[in-house]
Amino acid sequence: MKKNVEKVLNDIRPHLQADGGDIELVEVDEGKGVVKVRLKGACASCPMSQVTLGEGVARALKDKVKGVKDVVAI
Question: In the chain, what are the domains?
Fold first, then answer.
């Protein structure tokens, strides 16, 4: 599961980097289906970061990685 999460994040990363941000994988809890990430750079302080997380990152992970139930930014 972790390898698949990393692959999806690597697909998303160029879009975030284009706006001066980035994303870091912190933890994958396969038992609970929870992925923890850290938004970095411009994404860390952007007022739209929750939209980016929920509508972009979480949706992509849930759609493309079996077992992902929630994505949390820390």
Answer: 2-73 (3.30.300.130)
Place 64 in a pLDDT band, splitting at 50, 70 and 90: very high
Residue 28, Cβ density class (10 Å: 0-12 exposed, 13-18 middle, ≥19 buried): buried
Within 13 A of 69's CA, how many CA atoms are on the CB side?
7
Q: Give me the sheet containing 34-41, strands edge to edge.
A: 21-29, 34-41, 70-73
Chain centroid to Cα 70, Å, comes to 10
Tens digits of residue pLDDT in 14-52: 999 998 999 999 999 999 999 999 999 998 888 888 888
Q: HSE on the CB side for 60, CA within 13 Å?
A: 16
Give pTM, 2 decimals.
0.91
